[in-house]
Task: inverse folding
């Protein structure tokens, strides 16, 4: 067991080194490594001024300094990691919005859901409150997985993270992600498995649209170009669409069908 843990720890260090060198901001789509943050719909590039604060959050909390001695506020963490304050503000009923306003709303809702899914399937390290991973961080092995304390300024506990998830995703989607055990509660704090994985660089998201809407369901679609051999080819080999469903549930509007396409 100790030998296996040492091997996994070494692999985690290698993965983290690559993350530090290349950055760990999630791409605009799980299937689009080249897509930049500004390509992801709904990105909030302006500072979050005064989002509604969770009961267990400190508005003035300062993050741990990074390697360059910079400090980050809670709002800066939200903008840099979640890329939208959608889950912290009071949002209108999307069924009452005009087409343009609905598209803007759905862009933000999609960005919020993608931010959650990316924590599990793209780069869990972005949940870590500090900016640089250190091998000196305390680790604990549970069920053959190595966990680090996330020191997260926005979600200090698993309960806070789960509450945020359930405000954006359906209970079914939330339970499915939680079952991955990427994040756990340990000693009353949020701990997670550090690491990242690659994405399918053949796929590039080129547009999003509201495909269908009713009083209790909205279908939001990503349009994706696929280039099999020449990634720089002007004409793609194939164009695909991926649909996501946003539904009115007993708890309010939630994503009931969401995934990272590949």
Result:
């Amino acid at each position: 067991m100790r030998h296996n843990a040492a091997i996994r720890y070494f692999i985690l260090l290698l993965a983290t080194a690559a993350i530090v060198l290349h950055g760990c901001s999630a791409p605009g789509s799980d299937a689009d490594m080249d897509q930049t943050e500004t390509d992801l719909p709904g990105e909030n590039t302006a500072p979050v001024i005064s989002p509604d604060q969770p009961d267990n959050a400190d508005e003035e909390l300062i993050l741990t300094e990074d390697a360059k001695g910079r400090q980050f506020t809670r709002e800066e963490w939200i903008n840099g990691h979640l890329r939208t304050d959608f889950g912290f503000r009071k949002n209108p009923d999307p069924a009452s919005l005009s087409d343009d306003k609905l598209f803007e709303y759905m862009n933000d809702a999609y960005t919020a859901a993608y931010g959650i899914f990316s924590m599990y399937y793209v780069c869990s390290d972005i949940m870590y409150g500090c900016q640089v991973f250190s091998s000196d961080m305390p680790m604990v092995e549970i069920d053959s997985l190595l966990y680090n304390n996330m020191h997260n300024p926005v979600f200090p506990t698993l309960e806070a993270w789960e509450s945020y998830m359930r405000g954006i995703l359906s209970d079914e989607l939330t339970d499915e992600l939680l079952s991955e055990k990427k994040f756990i509660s340990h000693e009353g704090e949020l701990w997670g498995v550090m690491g990242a994985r690659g994405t399918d660089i053949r796929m590039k998201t080129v547009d999003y649209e509201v495909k269908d809407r009713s009083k209790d369901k909205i279908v939001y679609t990503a349009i994706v170009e696929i280039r099999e051999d020449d990634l720089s080819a002007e004409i793609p080999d194939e164009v695909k669409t991926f649909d996501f469903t946003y539904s009115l549930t007993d708890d309010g509007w939630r994503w009931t069908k969401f995934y990272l396409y590949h």
